[in-house]
Amino acid sequence: MKGELPMHPEEVTVKLFQVLPKRTKDVLDQRFGLGKNPKRMTLDAIGQKYGITRERVRQIEFDGLNRIRKSGAFDEMKPVFAALEKYFDDNGGTLKENMALENLAPHPKHANHVYFLLALHSNFARLHENDFLHDRWTHGKDSEERADKVLKNAVEALRKVGTPVPERQLYEVMASSAQSVLGGAVANNVLNNWLSLSKLISKNYFGEWGLIEFSSIKPRGMKDLSHMVLSKKGEPMHFSEVAAGIGKLIGRAVHVQTVHNELIKDPRFVLVGRGLYALKEWGYEPGVVRDVISNLLKGGALTKEKIIETVSAKRFVKPNTILINLENKKHFKKLSDGRYSVR
């Protein structure tokens, strides 16, 4: 959700910097990327530029920020900081860094000015990414802890589901998690902001949501992509069709033979016809036509017609192919009543 400050963030920093000596201003410009170079420089890089230690640069930065905080200019900017606080409070208190900067900056080139204002105001805290959450800014007591608990609860709920869910169901999971953790309803914009914090919950190529540990959410290589394409189709596909489907998903052509090679090696896929593959989870048995007949007849002798009907549902082959296999006397025998059984 876009936010609007009562004063342009660049104008705010210009006014605040008027209370600083030139070198301090230059150091802060470089530390926060507020000048012509938008890249935020490290303490070491700035120290090398001025021929001073990184600790001295840190002291200059610290002194500059304190000078601003104690200045009359800072007091004049209270409405700006109040607007920042309100934006955070309205959106759950904790926001993913790039989302907060994008929504609060009138233009991407002004994002560093918003970053500076957040760093300047002691009521905001920046938290580095970890294994579960992205870089984020937080405002308000326990706001980060609340977001973290809701997300962890949602992750466990999605793990129990075990498969991708549509966006509507995802927000039902998030809302239920918030209700369970916080004891009350939470607005969708807050759930959306908290959701963006998570490194564990993501969306796949089809707009479905789940955990990145699911291969159907974060596919690892051609095998998982093939599984996604076949799952979405819901019926057997030729390996060239699978390759074309993968190409549409990832936005670039893939080698058909590479896809075929992966399908052959992965036990999740079953060859059910000439170049046709199905998913084993659909009930298809691995093996050639002879294997399918053998498994079928283990349950008892059957007529030729019943064998052709049943095998045809499991393999996309001509009836004559089934008959040729059935006449293999090494593996099958014809009984006196015309039915067939395994030897």
From TrEMBL:
One annotated GO biological process: DNA-templated transcription initiation
Sequence ranges assigned to domain RNA polymerase sigma-70 region in this UniProt record: 17-70
Entry GO MF terms: DNA-binding transcription factor activity
Transmembrane segments: none
Pfam families, alphabetized: Sigma70_r4
Protein name: RNA polymerase sigma-70 region 4 domain-containing protein
Organism whose genome encodes this protein: Candidatus Giovannonibacteria bacterium RIFCSPHIGHO2_02_43_13
